[in-house]
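Consider the record:
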Amino acid sequence: MGSPPMKTPLTQDTIAAIATPPGVGAIAIVRLSGPQSRRILGELWISSCRSVENMETHRFYYGKIRKPALEIQAISPDIHTPEDAPSIIDEVMVVCFEAPRSYTGEDMVELYCHGGSVVVQEVLAACLDAGTRLAHPGEFTRRAFLNGKMDLAQAEAVASIIHAGSESARRHATEQLSGRLSQIIHQSMSSLTQLRAFVEATIDFPEEDIEMIAHAGIKERLLPIQSQLGRLAETYHAGRLLKDGARVVLVGAPNVGKSSLMNALLGQDRSIVHDVPGTTRDYVDAAWNLNGIVVHLTDTAGLRSADETVERIGIERSHQKMEEADLVLVICDGSRPLNASETEFIKQLDPERSLVVMNKSDLPKQCELSETISISAQTGAGMPELQEALCARLLGSGPQDVEGVTITALRHKQALDEALEALTAASNAVIEASSSEFVAHHLTQASQALGEIVGEVTTDELLGEIFGKFCIGK
């Protein structure tokens, strides 16, 4: 895969930010990037072993960080040497990275200080007073993209790794950061460029272009590209669940065992269980890991006609949660027959977004209903089968990856859909024996749509939207 083209940074100023999470810890990191990084470190650095000018790239050095000279004189005029104790902020380890061998592709400095919230803020303040400015959210990674250190899909993967809620989500994000998605996109773009070059060459032969395109088998050569991109687009459903998690709502009449089932799935008492109807008056949320998918479970108020105001509001919220859910688990009590309202409720459900679970299989069976999963939240019977059914229903029958790559961003899915639409139009133009200009136009549209994924076609608004979701220190 070829590297993205070099791009000029939006600014040449030097930025700084805290790169570690807020709070107390053993170590905190303050990161600088830009042409003045070493000069600014020189204003703050105290060490009898190594001056900033003699520091080698990619090596750690021990020293102390002090306040800038002007600030020291303004606060304490009696201090004459930078080694005086009141000017020292902290003992640190520091490492310099010379461009282009750094994360951003620029000169960088990383300061490793003690992790207290006060000391790291003082180190950052000293860097700002010495001439840096506070970085915008995601600006370090944005500069890495602009300097050709990574493409846009890889840059988005950085945020996905940081926010990964499961091992599966982390693994797929790591694959994207390694460039696997970008490789597939670049391969498709390269194939389209070759086809477009041939089609555009036939424009000079208007009386023979249609015959030349047909003879070259352009339509047949588009098929494998369409097939691969189509399968890649189909992975978005599974990818979205891996990245954002699935919303599963437990609904049913009072006392059918919704709360007991939720507690059984979680392996802990999260919902209150009692035989008094209406115990759960509002929804209860909890996260659960299902084979690598983060499932956001919601236990809802029992569905019935309620006179009490608080319970009635809880039931209204139950209906709202059902509309937002990826999957609705309808819990029924298998030890008694279904009443008319339960039967009607099940009939109205979307079968693609619902699963009927017959609870209390440890008691004598009194309810006959087809296409249900029989379980006992009390004894655990049927729980493995329920989890298997949940996985199958959530992930669906579509491909979960193409060559180890899964699409997790809606932006990528939309770009793939645009590319596929353009390729279909190009194929139809060949079938209809349209002019080669039309075929070339649609191939260009497909390439541009794919270019949006890796950042070869982009806008400042798009970059602002993507990197604005990052943390400041990344």
User: Anything to note?
Assistant: The chain has 17 helices and 13 strands. The mean pLDDT is 84. The domain at 158-235+404-455 is CATH 1.20.120.430 (Four Helix Bundle (Hemerythrin (Met), subunit A)). The longest strand covers residues 88-97.
